[in-house]
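Let's do one together. I've listed all components of the complex below, 674 residues spread over three lines.
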Amino acid sequence: MKFSLDIKGSITPFVAVGRVFEEPKTICYPFEKKEIAKGYRGFHTNSLDKCIGCANCQDVCMNDAIDMIPIKEDRNPKNSSGCIPRIDYGRCCWCSLCTDVCPPSSLKLEEDCIWASDDSNNFLYMPKDK
Amino acid sequence: MENRVIKIYHGPQHPGITGNMSLELDLLGETIKGARTHVGYLHRGFEKLVERRTIIQAFTIVCRICVPEPDPNEENFARAIETLAGIEISDRAKYIRTMVLEMARVASLLLWIGGQSGSIGLGTVGQWSLFDRDLILDLFEELTGGRVYHMYIYPGGVRRELPDGFLDKLFELLDYLEDRLPLYDKVFFENATFKKRAIGVGVVNRDEALKNGYVGQVLRGCGIKRDTRRDNPYLVYEDLDFEIPTFNGCDVYARAMVRRGEIRESIKILRQIIEKMPKDGKIMQKIPKHRRFKIPKDDTFVSTESARGEYSYYIAGDGSEKIRRMQVKGASLIHGFTLLEKLLIDEELSNVAMIMNSLGICPPEIER
Amino acid sequence: MIEKLKQNYEIEEKNQRLFKIRIKQEELITVISSISSTTNFITLSQIACADWIEDEVFTLNYILTTDKRDKNLMVEISIARDNSSIPTLMKLFPQAEVMERDLHEMYGMDFIGNPTLYDFALEDWKEIPPLRREFDTLEYVNSNFEFRKGREDNRDVKVEIKRRRAEAKKRLKDGK
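Okay, and this is what the predicted structure of the assembly comes out as:
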């Protein structure tokens, strides 16, 4: 291979050195948190006053992630089955089809999306009542 | 000392390999004498899975076929279903879809800069470009609710209305990205190290490029102007004014320069979209409920230009609410086997990662 | 170009840029080589296979694309589902090799003359080829894997509604 000196190409990359003096772009995670956009598809919330226990969400879920389980106390007289959805987060893919088909729009996704547990069986998630 | 051919696995443990695949290389010293591609580390059986699901349910998994750029999959799927079911989507939905596809292309090309520069040891550039990609992902997060898997382009339109002030934010981001591009030129595209490594390496045979079905930057790096957006236009690309960058040389450097041009063209397209997008209009056509959404017994073939080349779907319906067959052909299938195995012969071992990156091989779409 | 094809074949026009012809299995090589040499459908983009189990056939769509990449032609053949073998197109298009290898693994048909019909994405797969319709993924999962415990309390909503209605009726009666 013939050696040929590419002076411009050898010098210009050194503009990268100038960036040493810039502020870091990363955030210091546990102390400083990234603001999550409104409308992010995070965890489920279910307004028990509105949920009618129709199981449309269970029907549309392609991952079979949703179980309908009996409610402890009846909150909505229109809830004829007495059941509310519980989601298996080991299977959920956060496609939000369940929230699309919810007739009273009680099932929603919130911005919160951080889940940590020391038990691998701990993925069954009861949506927060909001 | 006799010359012995040794066999090594250049597998997913190697940071330079583009994802979960491996190459079986026959080495004579540092020179490659034979190469065989192996896939199967990421086979998820999507084509089988969609046969069990209704159309609406199947829509949520097609985006997972290609991780770095999921939107062409969604677009292909949605367009094929619309063709079969006879749905015509509104102009506004078309513009929004084009915008999403172009944003995804810029994001994917920035990710590629990271991969390509990483493969030759210029790690810093990769850090910058991934930061810039994250800014696009922030916009996606706001628009679609997800950063990587958007699940946004839906048969019948798009799923959400644009948030307030979204186009202004996009405009600002485009300004920012345009300011950054000269920096990438200085540090990466005009870098003497990159030029020295890339020029004359991985040369594709120009004569057989069209016949062998190569797509995307491989063709355009050979100076052949082919782009699905122009040749077989879909959505609103007919109304938009853009160039197709080409570069002669057929080597890694030529493909890099084509991609450099494409980022600029995509930014130009996005600016036009912001200008031309209809202010109002519905984004979603009325489609039947998921158990009643049936497509006739017919088949179709659609293709979209992804950031790696033409991406096509064959979809056959059988008159029920399920899809009979969805067959995906990503840009990487031919590049990863027919082209790569031939291209690597007589190259040096240290160039393998660079060549793979420049072909833009994405294993998830090879094995689906 | 399309007019030229129309003289010899019956063309179904799917849209302005997508055409389809149906031919017999035996004619495959002759038709595809004559189309690719006489018209400008010079490249093979995809070999798409669909399983029509109710008609006992696979349909194979060889999708040819022009050199301008602006039109696609689907050449469809039907083959028997079992023990079927078709000649390979490797001699005409080198990219057919990997596509046929993929189809062989997923459907089990043989491509005569293709030397690479070994494992593609699946490793040590002993069952029937997975994309055939008779392969039931759910059954396979149920017999080979265990589901995670803890979801047994799922209720069938229709049964629950019936039960609650009956209970309410009974209560109404008892109340009277």
